[in-house]
Amino acid sequence: MRALIKEKQDVARGTLLVTFDLLGEHADFRPGQYFFVTLPDVGYQDARGLRRHITVVTSPNERGVLGFATRMRDSAFKRTLGELPVGAEVEVEAPKGKFALPDDTARPLVFVAGGIGITVFRSMLRYIREERLSYRVTLIYSNRDRESTAFLEELRDLERELRDLRLIFTMTQDPSWEGETRKIDAQFFTDHLDGDLNEYTFLVAGPPAMTEGVQHALTEAGVKEENVIAERYSGY
Predict the structure, then answer these.
(1) Cα dihedral angle (23, 48, 13, 157), rounded to 10 degrees?
(2) Comparing C-alpha atoms, which of 96, 158, 151 is closest to residue 127?
(3) Is residue 140 within 8 Å of residue 180, measured between CB atoms?
(4) What would the pLDDT profile of 130-184 be if each residue is shown by its tens digit?
(5) Is the Cβ–Cβ distance between 225 and 133 less than 8 Å?
(6) Are strands 15-21 and 65-71 parallel, antiparallel or unpaired?
């Protein structure tokens, strides 16, 4: 469907949030799904082209818009995205995908995000707040430093609003950070989560190496495979 760029906003160092006006159309989706975007040709080309699938960062309740947040790199898609002004026309497709907020609100959830993987959980948490859903969520969010941590203050605001949301930030290369600085391993989970880890459902999203590392750590910590849902975000 035809859409226009509605807003562009830097949400961390090197990370751009882009929202699209669907021009009166509505896209029904579940938090966690992705959508395809095709950008117009403004002179940049490479082998991967100008079409990408990217996780929706906005809530389903934000009617008439879709948004994503992405790390800016030197691909044709990213360079084009950086140059396109607000009001530029793009093509988007209806969201789809199996990675989604579980239906069961009784079982506690652990969201594990690495870098740009936070986008999927932002959509979920905004939806939980808006719908006043009774999920109990622990969000573990790993970044190099505060400057590269997308939505840091927004997440803190959500924690204040949602009594059943607990945030655990870890900054692995930030000397001035006074909180957790470890990479996420098996001991990290046992240190920060109470009780039997198999009583939780773990949703993991981030770059492939990070996602694989977290899955390995969960296995090492004794978490059964059926209690882990993972989404790998390869570079786009």
Answers:
(1) 50
(2) 158
(3) no
(4) 999 999 999 999 999 999 999 999 999 999 999 999 999 999 999 999 999 999 9
(5) no
(6) antiparallel
